[in-house]
Amino acid sequence: MRLYVFEKKTTEATPYSSLATIYDFVMRHVDYVHWADHVEALILRHNLVPSTMIDVACGTASLAVELTKRGYRVNGADACDEMLDVGRSKVLEGGYEIGLYHRSFLELERLERHDCAVSLYDSVNYLMCVEDIDRMFENVHGIVHRGGLFIFDVCTETNSIRHFRDMRERERGDGFSYVRHSYFEEGVQYNDFKIKFDEPRQDVHELHQQRIYPLREIKAAIDRSAFALEAAYDGFSFREPSEESDRVHFVLRA
Ligand SMILES: C[S@@+](CC[C@H](N)C(=O)[O-])C[C@H]1O[C@@H](n2cnc3c(N)ncnc32)[C@H](O)[C@@H]1O
Predict the structure, then answer these.
(1) Which atom of ligand 1 sits closest to the CA of residue 32?
(2) Are residues 142 and 168 both part of a single domain?
(3) Per the structure, how many domains does the chain have?
């Protein structure tokens, strides 16, 4: 008798394309109300009264929804259409008026100008070289009104070393489970996801890479850009960033 062994194939997926459907579960610890509070606090501190905002690399639009609830007219853009699809369902279900656009930081063409652009939760770290950071600043500058603000964050080497040098977690949600291994090597933070979907049964592998920039490289890119640096803050505070900062928020004026 011949025994056939069928090897289950793991699909290699582009970052976020499969994670999209479980992203809100993976991020369930994130308090987007608090994040929106902080965006508003920064806007107030920097004397802007915006009516329009755009969240660049908005993911599944959680922050965009929260900002919309506060009365701003909000749009979102992201490079991953699957993430936007989850956002679109959220927007539809809630009856919000949020435009969600499939755009990379590197191609933000044909978007209108806004009073304020935001990009939070390490999204800028997905740009893997300073040339792309330069291009991102040029593009975002093109979608912000003169005098408006661009607020973004980056995560730091301290954060990678402190929390993600060799972090493993295993989680089960409704219809899926995943194993995440995060590690940090030579300035790059890797987040390796192995996801098992129950129905249809499918194993997917996604490897995310984030470049962890020294703050001086980000500041040098801001100096080369058309933005003016108004402030850099230790994450969720109005303190100066330090070697101890896990996250740094930048506030730029267009
Ligand atoms: C950690 S998630 C953050 C999403 C969202 N800002 C949040 O707070 O939940 C990073 C996001 O960056 C997006 N992204 C990665 N590279 C990008 C690029 N070059 N242009 C635009 N979005 C990008 C991903 O698709 C993903 O939605």
Answers:
(1) 8
(2) no
(3) 2
DSSP 246: S
CA separation for the pair 150, 247 (Å, rounded):
16
Q: Is 126 in the pocket of ligand 1 (CB under 6 A)?
A: yes
State whether the beta carbon of 122 lies less than 6 angstroms from ligand 1: yes
59 lines ligand 1 (CB under 6 A): yes
Please tell me the predicted confidence (pLDDT) of residue 9.
Answer: 81
C-alpha 1 to ligand 1 mean position (Å): 52
Residues 170 and 144 in one domain: no
Rounded to the nearest angstrom, the gap between the alpha carbon of residue 187 and the centroid of all alpha carbons in its chain is: 18
**Ligand 1 mutation target, pool 25, 78, 100, most atoms within 8 A of CB:** 78
Give 10-residue mean pLDDT values along the chain (254 residues). 62 95 97 98 98 98 98 98 98 98 96 98 98 98 98 97 96 98 97 96 97 97 98 97 95 98
Range of the domain at 248: 20-157+214-253
Token pair, residue 204, equals 């997917």
d(CA 120, CA 198): 31
- The response to whether residue 78 sits with its C-beta less than 6 Å from ligand 1 reads yes
**From atom 6 of ligand 1, which residue's Cα is the shortest distance away?**
58
CA pair distance 209, 203, nearest whole angstrom: 20
Q: In what order do the strands lie in the sheet with 228-234?
A: 99-102, 73-78, 52-56, 114-119, 144-155, 247-253, 228-234
CA distance 108 to 143: 8
> Is the CB of residue 50 below 6 angstroms from any atom belonging to ligand 1?
no
Q: So what's the pLDDT on residue 17? A: 96
CA of 127, closest atom in ligand 1: 19
Q: Check whether residue 116 and residue 172 sit in a common domain.
A: no
